[in-house]
Design a protein that fits this description.
Structural class: alpha+beta
Strand order of the largest sheet: 4-3-6-5
Number of strands: 6
Strand content: 5-15%
Helix content: 40-55%
Order of helices and strands: HEEHHHHHEHHEHEEH
Number of helices: 10
Distance between the termini: 40 Å
Shape: elongated
Largest sheet: 4 strands, antiparallel
């Protein structure tokens, strides 16, 4: 109890130190001769999952300090007595962490408005606008029933009235109206049938997994390019990924990489016993 109280008092006294005297090298604890600094806490805080970032700063400070102290105790107790598995895991973690920090710095650098505009123009301004379709359909169970509807339409029947009377699809009560859609939004067979139609034309009976359709193409229009504000986040993310890819490609081209000409049984990657003592 006394030791715990003294440790808490020491930490509280430390936190009362004037802010002007504190920097990243400020020592918050010393464990077996190894210092834990404010810098260590800053890095640990920045790497916390988002759900923990909203915790009060004093809670994070004390909690992370306790955690780092415990980690230091365990690590120093282990010393150099690492198993081959542990030593290899440390190498992997160090490599991954350094790479992640370097790439994060590259990806998070400021993206200018000119870069965003150039990316927007490349993706949207130079492309032909996509076509959107407005169609209606009547869904029935058999090809014969679908063909009978086609015959009635050719004889002058009203499409919406037939849809309301015969369609088993959810759009039936609305005259079969499906509204506007673009490529990729309908099942392939249905989409192909729509794209083969002229405005006002009725399709031949068309089968999908839902049944047999009779389709009429009501209208088409060019799909307008999205506003910059709508796709800004998407463009920024693509630019950041491109920066990372470009950096890795440049490093790869400049490096000397020799892949050993050795045949390894792929099943060995799951054999942890190879790293046993």
């Amino acid at each position: 109890m006394t030791k715990h109280f003294l440790a808490s008092a020491a930490i509280s006294a430390l936190l009362m130190t004037p802010a002007v005297a504190q920097d990243a090298d400020t020592v918050l604890a010393t464990v077996n001769g190894n210092d834990i600094t404010l810098g260590h806490i800053i890095v640990a805080t920045s790497q916390l999952p988002e759900q923990y970032q909203s915790l009060p700063d004093d809670v994070l400070l004390n909690g992370l300090l306790d955690q780092l102290i415990q980690q230091e105790l365990v690590a120093t107790d282990l010393g150099d007595d690492l198993t081959p598995y542990m030593a290899t895991a440390v190498e992997n973690e160090n490599r991954a962490l350094l790479a992640a920090l370097a790439l994060d710095g590259i990806a998070s650098a400021e993206i200018t408005d000119d870069e965003l505009q150039a990316a927007y123009d490349e993706q949207f301004a130079s492309e032909d606008p996509a076509v959107e379709f407005n169609a209606s359909h009547i869904l029935v169970e058999t090809e014969e029933a679908a063909q009978a509807l086609v015959d009635e339409l050719e004889a002058g029947a009203d499409f919406a009235e037939l849809a309301q009377e015969h369609s088993t699809g959810p759009s039936g009560p609305n005259g079969g109206l499906l509204g506007w859609f673009s490529a990729g939004m309908m099942v392939p067979t249905f989409e192909a049938a729509v794209m083969d139609l002229e405005v006002g034309e009725v399709s031949a009976p068309t089968e999908t997994q839902f049944g047999w359709h009779v389709i009429i193409l009501n209208e088409t229009r060019d799909q307008a390019a999205p506003e910059m504000a709508v796709v800004r986040d998407e463009l920024e993310e693509a630019l950041r990924r491109n920066r990372v890819d470009t950096h890795i490609e440049a490093l790869t081209e400049a490096a000397e990489i020799d892949r050993a000409e050795v045949s390894v049984d792929p099943m060995l990657i799951r054999n942890v016993d190879l790293l046993a003592n």
